[in-house]
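User: Fold this; tokens only.

Assistant: Input:
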Amino acid sequence: LLRDLIARLLEKDPEKRIGARGVKAHPFFCGVDWDRILQVARPPFIPPPPPQDEGEDGDEALDVEKVVREVFASNDAEGGKAWPVADGGRVGGGDGDGMETGSLSDGDAVSFGIEMPEKRDLRGEL
């Protein structure tokens, strides 16, 4: 029964495709009281309407660029967060804890202390 219903719903030709009345009358739904389903209880909480300044679909559109600018603006206002700074192919320095801190800016590079093995030829020579 379910396969038949799905096949009728997925019919490519809209003229042959099963409609709402056909779905309700289909044997798969023989025990369903459609009138009772329509008598849905009112939800206990109805949220207030959204403010007028939100998008037309009710949700404020997410502007990724705006969020990024706000994050970096707050970072600059706080004097910059402590980010690891590259130091000769490794992160580290100063106080011996293996981590030097500072602010990253455009063009700064970060190294994570990953050492690459030296390239050798097929005979194992450098």
